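Page 42, continued from yesterday. The earlier attempt failed because a stray header line got pasted into the input along with the sequence. Redoing it now with the clean sequence only.
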Amino acid sequence: MQIPVVRQGREGADGVDVYQQLREAIVDGTFPADSPLTENSLAAHFSVSRTPVREALRRLEQDGLVERGARGMQVRGRSPEEILEIYEVRIVLEGAAARAAAERHTELDLLKLDQVHSTMLAASTDDPERLAMANRRFHEAVWATSHNATLVDLLDRLHAHLTRYRETTLVYPGRLEAAVKEHRELIAAIKAGDRDRAGRIAEDHMTGARNARLQMYAEAEATR
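This time it went through. Structure tokens are written below.
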């Protein structure tokens, strides 16, 4: 197997470092879907024994980023079923975070929400990566405003799965305009302390993102 070049960390012999580097390589697409991940090849590449590689693969399997295939471990494939599974959970968690944010927000939280929303408005549609990052920062601000560390951790893990689908849903026709409107409405609901409205807006927002993601996946598959 040809191992893609992965940036070496300062602690190459550390199993945690191998895990982090492999995780980054999977998330950023260096290792694409269905790529085989053999212990011997990875150990040689990272100049470590097979033990830290085995531990890294075990943790990545728990994260849901790798799976056991017919010929051993491999990067988890992409599918509409996976998209549905991820969003089924994320819709619930985003709603919970928005409801908690409406109840627990501070004045500083509200200032941060306004700031990240303004940053997203200023992002150019000609720069999808910057736009996606601005969108991510907005959602992270909502998560943080929930003041629930467990929710934040779970949502962060779910987002790692979606980053394997490289193109942001904001490039899908009409999605950016809808997302900006929904973000503005969500901020208003949080400021008003309306937990039910905030939760509904967040859930509807992620449902729209799911539908766009599924349509993008279908269109990409149709051109292959």
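Notes: The mean pLDDT is 89.
Reminder to self: strip header lines before submitting.
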